[in-house]
Amino acid sequence: MAAGLPAAAQEASPQLQPQRIRELVHLVRQDCGSCHGLTLQGGLGPALTAPALRDKPRESLVATILGGRPGTPMPPFRGIVAEDEAAWIVDRLAEGFPPDPGASR
């Protein structure tokens, strides 16, 4: 799919400060991982791996992070992360989230 994540991730990944990157990595591991599995392979929520997200539009995933999914356990993270930070998370997931807890980009 032309609008798939890998191409979108290469186009425009926001530049964030190293401290904020560490905070976002922690957020994904702790908050997202609590429902999507500690390795993001799925749990209460679906897998957040690169193959699982490959055909999902980037904008839709960013909107889901910010607004949640009504009628599901997925909460909104607007107010916790900005739109560019949600896009950064989506781009990292599209690349394969850093497997090592100390890894960040």
From TrEMBL:
Q: What is this protein called?
A: Cytochrome c55X
Respond yes or no to whether keyword Cytoplasm is given for this record: no
* Record keywords, A-Z: Heme, Iron, Metal-binding
Residue stretches making up the Cytochrome c domain = 1-97
Asked if the Swiss-Prot or TrEMBL record annotates the protein with the keyword Heme, the reply is yes
Database matches in Gene3D superfamilies: Cytochrome c-like domain
One GO molecular function term of this record is:
metal ion binding
Source species, domain of life: Bacteria
User: Which InterPro entries does the entry link to?
Assistant: Cyt_c-like_dom (IPR009056), Cyt_c-like_dom_sf (IPR036909)
